[in-house]
């Protein structure tokens, strides 16, 4: 048995439980028959020409696309080589080479079968560059399609294109404002950048001077926590909502309530004003976003579709004009004309408590307990995750025109991000005031002023904190946290 070759084994080997050698030989025969069938017949394993041609064409375009125009096309006139004129010896040598039978390997024939790009000249140089770029992009997409998004070479090339963050000066807290008797739940800044207002769990709305931080006015009317505030840029109106199911319109010239919007079945958590139309959007625990006519108090639409509390609302003058985030882990883009959902984003796994739209780019970001994500509008195309994880329930977020985005969580953490790259360049922890519990370090709302140079945070220790950039900081003195681009761009 030991002297026999594997090819002479009988198909049936008796296995009596005692002969381990027979069992081993049987497995060897199966492996031998599986992998060496072509070798026994004296033929080499055939090469998959299509895959080899694709591999070679991609390699040629990647490595020699900049110099392909220097080589004469096949069948065309060859450029004379530099050197002495051909003499009799060289002529005879050339004749000898021409008389030799042509012998090319299979790989050489495969290379010759790859179509070459157009020749380069002074008139069509730009066209050639565009052609090469299109061919390279097509080849890369073919590789991705054929390999199931598993090409390591393509992943490395795409990963190198991750944008590097712009340096931002660090932010520091310079003012603490006290006056509320409960958690500070909401904030809105005057469009004229002269004052800001805050709503609290003490059922009051206070108006503060932005420059000095002094209290200017206290408004009462709600009978529960004030969870949302917004100031109209086109009217002398301020709108507020609370857990008492009420939505109120305040006349800032008379400092009193002039309208009430009735319809919510439970507490109202979020609100937003349409930038160009006289429409007010409110969302709450009844899982709907209600659209109100600002002047007539009529409910225009009841945008239903969420299965849990509507925590955040964004509005913009173009479609989608309303974007809502909910505790059911989804984000919905609404068609305000039909009152129906345009698309539903299901990228988050937990409650979407905060959203913010970039002031100049057509994009927005959303925050949840597991991550912060960016989307492109109008289709809500997912762009990428932020490069770090805050590891907190993010309650609020804000962004200014310089590309600084701030997020705050229920553990008192305030993180500052570079909008373009998603890099967190500063991490701060809010300090609770003396006499407060450590569990009262949560931050419920924040907003930049109209200039983007001041950040105001509303916290659970009943205080309001104001942050600003450090004017004396330089890239050398404050480089910020190290930037680490993602290793695998496909995860983003």
UniProtKB/TrEMBL annotation:
Keywords: Repeat, WD repeat. PROSITE patterns: WD_REPEATS_1, WD_REPEATS_2, WD_REPEATS_REGION. WD repeats lie at residues 177-218, 219-260, 261-296, 303-344, 443-468. Pfam families: WD40 (PF00400). GO terms for biological process: mRNA splicing, via spliceosome. Residues 70-106, 469-492 are annotated as: Disordered. GO terms for cellular component: catalytic step 2 spliceosome; precatalytic spliceosome; Prp19 complex. This is Uncharacterized protein. It comes from Chlamydomonas eustigma. The keyword Repeat applies.
């Amino acid at each position: 048995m030991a002297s026999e070759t594997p090819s002479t084994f009988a198909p049936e080997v008796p296995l009596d439980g005692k002969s381990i050698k027979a069992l081993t030989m049987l497995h060897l025969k199966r492996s031998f028959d599986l992998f060496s069938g072509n070798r026994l017949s004296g033929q080499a394993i055939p090469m998959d020409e299509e895959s080899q041609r694709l591999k070679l064409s991609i390699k040629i375009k990647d490595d020699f696309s900049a110099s392909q125009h220097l080589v004469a096309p096949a069948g065309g006139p060859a450029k004379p080589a530099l050197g002495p004129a051909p003499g009799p010896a060289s002529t005879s040598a050339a004749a000898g080479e021409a008389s030799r039978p042509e012998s090319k390997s299979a790989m050489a024939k495969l290379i010759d079968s790859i179509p070459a790009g157009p020749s380069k000249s002074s008139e069509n140089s730009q066209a050639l560059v565009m052609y090469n770029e299109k061919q390279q992009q097509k080849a890369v997409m073919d590789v991705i399609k054929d390999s199931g998004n598993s090409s390591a070479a393509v992943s490395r090339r795409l990963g190198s294109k991750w944008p590097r963050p712009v340096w931002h000066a660090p932010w520091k807290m310079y003012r603490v404002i006290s006056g509320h008797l409960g958690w500070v739940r909401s904030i809105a800044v005057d469009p004229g950048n002269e004052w800001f207002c805050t709503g609290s769990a003490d059922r009051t709305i206070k108006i503060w001077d932005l420059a000095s931080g002094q209290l200017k006015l206290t408004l009462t009317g709600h009978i529960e926590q004030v969870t949302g505030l917004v100031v109209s840029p086109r009217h002398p109106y301020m709108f507020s909502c609370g857990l008492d199911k009420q939505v109120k319109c305040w006349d800032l010239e008379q400092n009193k309530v002039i309208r009430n919007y009735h319809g919510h079945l439970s507490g109202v958590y979020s609100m937003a004003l349409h930038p160009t139309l006289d429409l007010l959007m409110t969302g709450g625990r009844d899982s709907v976003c209600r659209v109100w006519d600002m002047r007539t108090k009529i409910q225009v639409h009841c945008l239903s579709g969420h299965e849990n509390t509507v925590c955040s609302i964004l509005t913009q003058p173009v479609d989608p004009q309303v974007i809502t985030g909910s505790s059911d882990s989804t984000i919905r883009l609404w068609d305000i004309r039909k009152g129906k959902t345009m698309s539903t984003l299901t990228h988050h796994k937990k409650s979407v408590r905060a959203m913010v739209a970039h002031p100049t780019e057509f994009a927005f970001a959303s925050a949840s307990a597991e991550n912060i994500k960016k989307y492109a509008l109008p289709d809500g195309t997912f762009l990428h995750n932020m490069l770090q994880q805050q590891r907190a329930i993010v309650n609020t977020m804000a962004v200014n025109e310089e590309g600084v985005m701030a997020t705050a969580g229920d553990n008192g953490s305030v993180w500052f991000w570079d909008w373009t790259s998603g890099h967190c360049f500063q991490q701060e922890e809010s300090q609770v005031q003396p006499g407060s519990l450590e569990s009262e370090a949560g931050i419920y709302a924040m907003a930049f002023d109209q200039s983007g140079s001041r950040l105001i945070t509303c916290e659970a220790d009943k205080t309001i904190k104001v942050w600003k950039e450090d004017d004396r900081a330089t890239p050398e003195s404050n480089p910020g946290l190290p930037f680490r681009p993602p290793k695998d761009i496909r995860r983003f």
